[in-house]
Write a structure and sequence with these properties.
Blueprint (H helix, E strand, L loop, with lengths): L3 H15 L4 E6 L19 E8 L2 E7 L6 E6 L4 E6 L15 E7 L5 E6 L7 E5 L6 H4 L10 H9 L5 H6 L9 H10 L13 H22 L7 H7 L19 E4 L4 E4 L1 H4 L16
Helix pairs in contact: 1-6, 5-6
Length: about 290
């Protein structure tokens, strides 16, 4: 799933190409991705793209008309969604209900310019909203503060309010927005914290280190992705990961074997030596350490 660094990189890339361009047409290949009906998607045509930005893990494309207030095209890429910019888009609309990955196509600027919003696989979770105010989207209205906007004391105060595991806190968008499964693995590995550590029980030193690590890991990833073409972002993300999706491989810090905890529809990775004092975390939805 694209997380804060990838969504920020996509937003910056598309903003640098689309800001100031008129939207000529919007093609919808999958009506199921549209979660709103007012304004209709046709209302985007004729407007000018003001900016492309990010709220948490959501892309926000703002477009204004000559005599009307702005409307916002909001995209959540979910697990298998992506955005592809092209200078050679087909003028033929994608076939509605087709088996291809294209869900939405936005023509902007000169003929051929624009982007496709795509989704691979069979689990269709991509979501698109067209609204006058981003706060109309419930998922955005209920987001916690952006993780990179928090001060150290604000971060510590959030941790003190919950007895949840730190892995859960970092990935719960209602508590803190922006971090997902992959970067939470990387952050916890770098900070040498167990994913099952209790948030409110962390010491001040652990909170200091965790806060600094969040910023270093995320800003480092943003820096690696900056200026990359959207098509290369996934590969760049994978190249920078130390434990996530590396089950069975040696930890690049200590050489121990990277382990995995699996759930029904997801998993996370960690290093026992670096993070849990050598103990193996219980798998299959169990929450305690094996003795």
């Amino acid at each position: 799933m694209p997380e804060l660094p990838e969504v920020q990189a996509i937003a910056d890339y598309v903003d640098g190409r689309a800001a100031g361009l008129p939207i000529r047409r919007v093609d919808v290949a999958s009506l199921a991705v549209l979660k709103t009906a007012d304004p209709p998607y046709t209302a985007l045509a004729g407007r000018v793209i003001d900016s492309v930005g990010r709220v948490g893990k959501y892309l926000v494309i703002t477009a204004s008309g000559a005599d009307e207030g702005p409307i916002h095209l909001i995209i959540h890429l979910s697990r298998a969604g992506w955005l592809r910019w092209s200078d050679n888009l087909s003028p033929t609309p994608p076939r509605p209900g087709g088996k291809g990955p294209i869900a939405l196509r936005v023509h902007c600027g000169l003929p051929g310019e624009g982007f496709d919003v795509t989704e691979a696989g069979t689990q269709k979770r991509l979501a698109v909203w067209i609204v006058r105010d981003p706060a109309e989207v419930e998922r955005i209205a209920t987001l916690g503060p952006d993780v990179l906007a928090l001060t150290r004391d604000e971060f510590a105060a959030l941790l003190a309010t919950t007895g949840a595991r730190i892995k859960t806190v970092l990935t719960d968008q209602r508590i803190i927005a922006g971090i997902g499964n992959a970067y939470s693995d990387e952050i916890l590995h770098t900070a040498k914290l167990s994913p099952f550590a209790t948030s409110k029980n962390l010491s001040d030193d652990q909170i200091d280190l965790l806060y600094a690590t969040i910023h270093s890991v995320l800003t480092g990833a943003i820096g690696r992705l900056e200026g990359q073409k959207v098509a290369r972002l996934k590969g760049e993300k994978r190249s920078g990961l130390r434990v996530h999706a590396r089950t069975g491989m040696p930890c690049p810090v200590c050489g121990d074997t990277v382990r995995e905890v699996s759930f029904t529809d997801r998993s996370f990775q960690y290093c026992p030596t670096c993070q849990t004092g050598g103990k193996i975390l219980a798998d299959r939805r169990m929450s305690r350490l094996l003795k």
